[in-house]
Amino acid sequence: MQVVNQILDYELLTFGNHTLKVFQVVSILLIIIGTKILLWIIKKALFRNYKFSKIDRGSKYAIFQIIKYVVWVMAIALLLESIGVKVTLLLAGSAALLVGVGLGLQQTFNDVISGIILLSERSIKVGDVLEIDDDVVKIESIGLRTSKAMNRDDISIIIPNSLITTSKVINWSHQSQQTRFKIDVGVAYGSDVDLVIKILEESAFEHSSIQDRNLVEARLLSFGTSSLDFQLLFFSANVFRVERIKSDIRKIINKRFIENNIIIAFPQLDVHVKRTSK
């Protein structure tokens, strides 16, 4: 036992009036390992599929993130105390420095506070489909400063949390199970309006993702400069990949228009030349 005490009390480094001993290094390792084990247990318990659990996966993720940050803050405080650094004295002595750092990292702190709001408020969760700055993304993770998302081109995007909390954001996942989308098309003047509406509605219903005919509607939208403008309205549950569905429906519409001799209009300009006698 005496040998063990001598090993633990062995001085590894000396800097000023402070020394780093073996038992302090061991304490640091034990705190880190203990923290990771504790978080692993909490995560396993939180994400276990309980039969009567009413908390969805996104909410569980938000709760775990908050717990993780709190546990790590406490662990870091213990680490500093274990090597002889008094946390309270450190904070008091560096108050002026912290003010300067705070001014320099104002945007970072803004992102961090926004991250805390997102995790605690849970208005946006992992798996939600958002529209931010005309870009549709699916949230994959929410961090303390930034969130990670994937757009429709399968490109990973890092979003500052303050952008989500301060900008106008559409959360498509807050809608009902199905969301309404639209396709605009213009046909040449003289086309049979009733036939065009019938083709548009049947083209939408022909797609495998559209299952309820009552949720499909085509309407004459306006008399355009060079075309009769129509709009096809339909509902789809596949919000994130809806552009692929729109493309498929447009191909069906184009095919049916060709079969029925309906011309998709394009801008035209008539020029009249007036001759004057000299």
Describe, in plain words, how this protein is organized in 3D.
- With 278 residues, the chain is α+β, with helices and mostly antiparallel strands.
- 47% of the residues lie in helices and 21% in strands.
- The chain has three domains: 2-87, no CATH class; 114-174, Roll (SH3 type barrels), CATH 2.30.30; 179-259, Alpha-Beta Plaits.
- The protein contains nine helices and ten strands.
- The N and C termini lie far apart (124 Å).
- The relative contact order is 0.08.
- It is found in: Cell membrane.
- Belongs to the MscS (TC 1.A.23) family.
The side-by-side strand order for the widest beta sheet comes to 6-5-4-3-7
Tell me what portion of residues adopts beta-strand conformation.
15-25%
The tally of structural domains comes to 3
Q: Strand tally, please?
A: 10
Average pLDDT confidence is: 79
From the alpha carbons, calculate the radius of gyration and give it in angstroms.
31 Å
Total of DSSP H or I helical runs spanning 4+ residues: 9
